[in-house]
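Re: weekly structure request thread

Next one in the queue (298 aa):
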Amino acid sequence: MQIAFKRLWRSLQELITQPYPVEGATPPQRHGMRMLWLDNLFSAISGGFYADFEVLYFLALGASATLVGMRSSINSALSLLAPLIGAWLVARTGRRKRWVLLGGGGIGRLCLLLVVFIPWVIPGPAAPWAYVALIAIQALVGSLSTPAANSLFGDIVPIGVRGRFVGLQMMAANLVRVGIIPLAGWMIKRIGGLAGYQVAFALAALIGFIATSFYARIPEPEAPESVKRADGSRAGFREGFYHFIRDKFFLFYCLIHFIWNVGIQLSGPFFTVHMVQTLGFQVDTISLLATISTIVNV
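Done, posted below.
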């Protein structure tokens, strides 16, 4: 009986930590894939505690609808420029994991923790502006890390299983969020006031640092950007940009993506404002709606 229980427990552990295909992966890649998987799970838990409540906390700090739109515009502008800087840093240094840990995994999550202290350190009319500044820094370093993270991901996950791995990652993240979002909404309402949001954001930051600890254990092979050619030069940002502008299909994809996001940003940042100020929804109702949306995404 004890042996059967141990086998069952081992099977459950494998289902949680390795439900993805590993065909063609080397031992270092398998270790990296497991760390990526755990990083994704804990990042999803972290996001469930704060991502759908950012605007609610912002409004609770005293932000106006205009300031909500301004925050979204600033974040979008930084998210547009930062990946270019991130790509340049990878091409310049040949390092990837360093920029992810320093950027989104480090400074980004530190900013998330710092917003918890805004009501105590910067109360009054300045509080929403402090929130804008910290969330803008979070958006900047998060987007700056994206090229490095994508490059390292390509070296860790073999191309033959990459599509299935990404699909399972997205499904697992959404399933986790389905459980965390209503829990976070209930907790925020139960505690009440700004304190509820502060507790949720603090939990999100601390759990996010656990995700960062898993990402730090990913083995980092030599980056393609760091490999010297016969003439001693390296693949650089200028060359990458040259190939980018020559790829008409990719340019067309980027144009469609840009138009799509413009349409979303025209109204997206104000949905929560409308639900709170016009429809009178409470945080638990908004968390329920976010949960339903996540279930559809699964």
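The mean pLDDT is 82. The domain at 28-223+234-297 is CATH 1.20.1250.20 (Growth Hormone; Chain: A;).
Next request, please.
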